[in-house]
Amino acid sequence: MATLRQQIATTALTLTKFRELMKRMQENRPHDDLSIVKKAYDFSLKHHEGQSRASGEPYLVHPLEVALVLAEMKMDPVAIAAGLLHDSVEDTSVTIVDIRKEFGEQVAHIVEGVTKISKIEFATREEQQAENIRKMMLAMVDDIRVVLIKLADRLHNMRTLEHLDPERQHKIAEETLEIYAPIAHRLGMGKIRGELEDLGFRFLDPVGYEQVEKAVNARRKQGEAFLEKTHKLISDKLKEAGIQARVESRIKRLFSIHKKLQKQRISVDQVYDLCAMRVITRSLQDCYAVLGIIHNLWRPVPGRIKDFIAMPRPNFYQSLHTSVITEDGTPFEIQIRTEEMHKMAEEGIAAHWKYKDGPVSAQDEQRLAWLRQVVEWQRDVSDPNEFLSTLKVDLYPEEVYTFTPKGKVVVLPRDSTPIDFAYTIHTEVGHTCVGAKVNGRMVPLRHKLHSGDIVEILTQPGHKPSRDWLGLVRSSRSRNKIKHWLNVHQRERAIEIGRKLIEKEARKYRIALKEIKDEELTRIASGYGLGRGDDLMAGIGYGKYSARQVLARLLPAGATPSIAGDIEAEGLTSGSIASAVRRVFGGNNAITVRGQGDMLVYRARCCNPIRGESIVGYITRGKGVAVHSANCSNVTNLLYEPERKIDVEWARDDSTPTAYPVKLTVFCDDRFGMLKSITGVIGDAKSNIRNIAARTENSQASVEVVLDIADLKHLESIIAGLRKIAGVHEVQRLQKI
Ligand code: MN
């Protein structure tokens, strides 16, 4: 418990800061209602009471300093209030619900965003990872004020970093240089970026920092004298020419000098251009006039004149840059820009985000068009802060940034599902993926992922990918992996089918396939232009060659079947496919379809259509006719060629009761009696349960059940019944069994 004296000291300190904040806001935004800021201050005062920072200062100083940085950016009262409250959910007993109740939706939304970002673990440090995190942070927040508060927060933490232990200092400084300074740069906020970089450099590489600092200090006097002289010279010349402009001079920032040393591989002694000048004009025309005057004074270095006014940088930075050489042979850089351009370069605004380094693609061009439009809007809005507060961040509309439970960022195309995520982790994880948890909750495999989601993939050894996954995935990587797997395994299956067909045919001659020598098979295979016996079997399985013809080549001439021919087989191997389809679906029950289906007509395994469902036939390449459900994604996505579609219908004959196995997944609460309710509904519908398995986690469950279903109506009534059970969130039919 703080002593009374301490409490008084705390109050005095924070009150001074608060008054400073209010004063700054009244200056910047004289017409704003600041009551929400006062309220946020009182609220934080109460909830951070007794807390102190590593520096020993009362904790409240931190949110106040953050709010002051935001006030400097001329942010609105909502952002300032959110800044004051930004650590309250993380560090006190306050919840988002409390904030929403007290301060309304906007403040709560922003505080929630800041809290969310604070929770991200920056686990690995690869360059790509850092870039992804930067992108993700911009993509996952939908209010730019979240990012600005996070930057202000980081700035104050960096300013007070000396109070932490070296290990923490190193980690935070590294994160600042890798994540936050580049974000400030992307947002065009040159001033904050510069300070973040210098502070980051100082704590990440104290030895290097000291070296550069020493070297710069050794030359500081000389440099300042030079700057003073040059400053006067330029000012005089401008006055002579009748140009009103402001001249600024500075010693360059330590981090930028350090980077130059690294880039040019030179030592500190060899850095000559520590000094830089800047001329800030009243008009665009004056910029070019000043450039002329400068080049009259000193000789320009060829190739160093850059016109970023005519060709703005991707973050909309505008300026003229030139390097000139003084009488004594020292080159130095001069930047020339208007007040407006200067303001943008220092502070940046949301409209000045940088998109990407490197060449501009057609996609980037589109984004830039969007950006230009945003800039146009901004001109119409009288108050740029109003613009800021209404702008939604949509920088990377076609990507989502998700996490593994260990904090690694996984970048996926928009609308990706857990299957895409699984294949990105590892091919085998993809193949054996049976479910997923997103932010701790079980979700169906077709669940669409969002930026910031933490995704955990559930796998089951031996599980296999299914064709209907092709309709669920978005990334070409997963698509290719699934297709590849299907192709390989389809061949295996074709070989198996081919073998069975040959065996069946051979039985008619009372021969077992075993009796046929491998060399014989290879010989026949080569007669078909194939290398191995397996290729021949696969060919039969795919329906390219008839088993009967192949067998005829194997048998001595004149061999006759022991039974006079198999009418059914005859019917299926001759005549048009269409007539076979009609026969199979018309005359026989579903068992026949399945028995012979491997060869000619079969229910597609990707969607397992059941009686009553509208169906469509598809002529496969040599495997007969696959019957799909009409809404099977493989058919609707036109993964198949449309001209191969063929009309099929269910037989009218329902005298033979059939039982189609159908797999359902029930997503539900893990509560007592749930399983009983589920099996009850199924039992009441007179359906047989073939298999049931449940998975539970965090009081959520997913129950997979394989049922015998008579027809579509039967299935629909069961699903409706399951959905009525209290605590059942979703019932999903898995096409593949
Ligand atoms: Mn903070």
- What is the helix fraction of residues, given as a range? 40-55%
Given the structure, what is the number of helices? Answer: 28
Q: What is the straight-line distance between the termini?
A: 64 Å
Largest sheet: 6 strands, mixed
Number of strand segments:
19
Q: Strand portion, in percent? A: 5-15%
What integer is the average pLDDT? 78
Oligomer: single chain
Uncertain spans, ≥5 residues at pLDDT below 50? 349-395, 563-599
Question: What can you see in these coordinates?
Answer:
The protein has 737 residues and is α+β, with helices and mostly antiparallel strands. Strands 1, 2, 3, 4, 5 and 6 form a 6-stranded mixed β-sheet that branches. Strand 17 and strand 18 (700-709) form a beta hairpin. Helix 3 (61-72) packs across helix 8 (144-159). The model is unreliable at 349-395 and 563-599 (pLDDT under 50). Bound molecules: manganese (II) ion. Manganese (II) ion binds next to loops.
Summarize the structure.
This protein is α+β, with helices and mostly antiparallel strands and 737 residues long. The protein has 28 helices and 19 strands.
Characteristic key phrases:
single chain, 737 residues, alpha+beta, 6-stranded mixed β-sheet, 4-stranded mixed β-sheet, 19 strands, 51% helix, binds manganese (II) ion
SSE inventory with pairings:
Layout: H1 4-28, H2 35-47, H3 61-72, H4 77-85, H5 88-91, H6 96-118, H7 127-140, H8 144-159, H9 166-186, H10 190-204, H11 206-241, E1 245-251, H12 254-264, E2 275-281, H13 284-297, E3 299-300, E4 306-307, E5 320-325, E6 331-338, H14 339-347, H15 362-380, H16 384-390, E7 399-403, E8 409-413, H17 418-425, H18 427-431, E9 433-438, E10 441-443, E11 455-459, H19 476-507, H20 518-527, H21 533-542, H22 547-554, H23 567-573, H24 577-587, H25 590-597, E12 601-603, E13 615-619, E14 625-629, H26 633-636, E15 645-646, E16 660-669, H27 674-684, E17 689-697, E18 700-709, H28 712-723, E19 728-734
Helix pairs in contact: 1-3, 2-4, 3-4, 3-8, 4-6, 6-8, 7-9, 8-10, 9-10, 10-11, 11-12, 17-19, 19-21, 19-22
